[in-house]
From TrEMBL:
The keyword Metal-binding does not apply. It comes from the Bacteria. Belongs to the histone deacetylase family. InterPro entries: HDAC_classIV, HDACs, His_deacetylse_dom, His_deacetylse_dom_sf, Ureohydrolase_dom_sf. It holds the Pfam family Hist_deacetyl. Residues 26-297 form the Histone deacetylase domain. The lineage of its organism: Bacteria, Pseudomonadati, Bacteroidota, Sphingobacteriia, Sphingobacteriales. This is Histone deacetylase.
Length: 308
C-alpha cells in the first residue's frame, strides 16, 4: 500500500453540495467527494489510504482561536454581523464540518511527519482569524494544526505557504506576533479580501498574470524563503482558484501551470526532507471537472515526487 494518508471529509450537513457564493456564483461542495472518487478510479490511492477525522474538541479549536469566539460558535450564538461576515447560515452541522476539517489537518500533519507528506481532502480555511470567521471559513485548520505541533514539541519552526488566489488573511492575523510560524501568501492583488492583513511575506499579483510570470516569481522566491525561514515543517494551502477557468480568480494560469506550481512546492520540501501537509483550498471554475482535475494533479505530483 502506498504510504500516503488523506483525511476524507464526510459531508454531513443539509444541502451540503451547493451553497451560495458572493456575486451570484455557487460553490460546489461536491468536489470533495469527486476528488475522493477520482483518486480511487485512477488507482492513485487505495481505500486504506483514507482516514476519517473526528470532531475536534473545544480546547483544540482554541489553540489558534479566541475562546469566546469558539464558545459562541459551539453554542450557535454568533451575532448577525459575524454570521454575515462568514457567509453561511450558522448551524450545528456546519460547525461540526469545520471541527472535522481541523481534526483532519491535525491527523495529516502527524502523518506527514511519518511519511513525508499527507493531505486533507478539504481544508485551507485561511480566512478565519483569531477571533472571527470570514469568507466561508469558521476556523483555520492549518493554523490550529500548526499550534498543535508547536505545543507538543513536534515542530519548532513552521512555514505556511498559501498559494490560493485569495490572501491568507486569517492565517496572517493569527500568527502576526508568533516568531515560530512564518506566513507566506502569493495572491491576487485586487481580489478578496479587499482589506488585507500583513503576512510575514506577501506577493500581490496583478490580474491576468499567466504561467510564465507566475511560475518565475514562485521559482525565485521559494529557495530564498526556505533558506530564510529554515522550517522543520511546512503547511501548503493549494487552492486551484488561480486557474484561468476560475470564476473568481482573475488570473490566467493553465492547468499545467497549476500542476507545476505544486511540483515546485512539493519538490522543495522533498529535497530538504521537510514534512509537508497539504489542504485543498479554493476552486470555483465553471466546470467541476476543471476543479477536480487540478486538485487531483496535486496528488499525482506528490505521488511521483515521493515515489509512492
Amino acid at each position: 500500500m502506498r504510504q500516503i494518508h488523506i483525511a476524507l471529509l464526510k459531508i454531513a450537513y443539509h444541502n451540503a453540495y451547493i451553497h451560495p457564493l458572493r456575486e451570484g456564483h455557487r460553490f460546489p461542495m461536491i468536489k470533495y467527494e469527486l476528488i475522493h472518487g477520482q483518486l480511487l478510479y485512477e488507482g492513485l490511492v487505495e481505500k486504506e489510504n483514507f482516514v476519517e477525522p473526528q470532531l475536534a474538541d473545544f480546547e483544540t479549536c482554541c489553540l489558534a482561536h479566541d475562546r469566546q469566539y469558539v464558545s459562541r460558535l459551539f453554542e450557535l450564538t454568533l451575532d448577525e454581523r459575524m454570521v454575515r461576515r462568514i457567509g453561511f447560515p450558522l448551524s450545528e452541522s456546519l460547525v461540526d464540518r469545520e471541527r472535522l476539517i481541523l481534526d483532519g489537518t491535525i491527523r495529516t500533519a502527524l502523518s506527514a511527519q511519518r511519511y513525508g507528506i499527507a493531505f486533507n481532502i478539504a481544508g485551507g480555511t485561511h480566512h478565519a482569524g483569531f477571533d472571527y470567521g470570514e469568507g466561508f471559513c469558521l476556523m483555520n485548520d492549518q493554523a490550529v494544526a500548526a499550534r498543535y505541533l508547536l505545543n507538543r514539541g513536534a515542530a519548532r519552526r513552521i512555514l505556511i505557504i498559501d498559494l490560493d488566489v485569495h490572501q491568507g488573511n486569517g492565517t496572517a492575523h493569527i500568527f502576526k506576533e508568533d516568531p515560530d510560524v512564518f506566513t507566506f501568501s502569493m495572491h491576487g492583488e485586487k481580489n478578496f479580501p479587499f482589506v488585507k492583513e500583513r503576512s510575514d511575506r506577501d506577493i500581490a499579483l496583478p490580474d491576468g498574470i499567466s504561467d510564465e510570470r507566475y511560475l518565475s516569481i514562485l521559482e525565485e522566491v521559494l529557495p530564498t524563503l526556505f533558506e530564510e525561514v529554515n522550517p522543520d515543517f511546512v503547511f501548503y494551502q493549494a487552492g486551484v482558484d488561480i486557474l484561468q477557468t476560475d470564476k473568481l480568480g482573475k488570473l490566467k494560469v493553465s492547468k499545467e501551470g497549476c500542476k507545476y506550481r505544486d511540483y515546485l512546492v512539493i519538490k522543495s520540501c522533498k529535497e530538504r526532507d521537510i514534512p509537508l501537509q497539504i489542504s485543498t483550498g479554493g476552486g470555483y471554475s465553471v466546470h467541476i471537472r476543471d476543479i477536480v482535475d487540478a486538485h487531483v494533479n496535486t496528488y499525482k505530483t506528490a505521488i511521483d515526487i515521493f515515489d509512492f
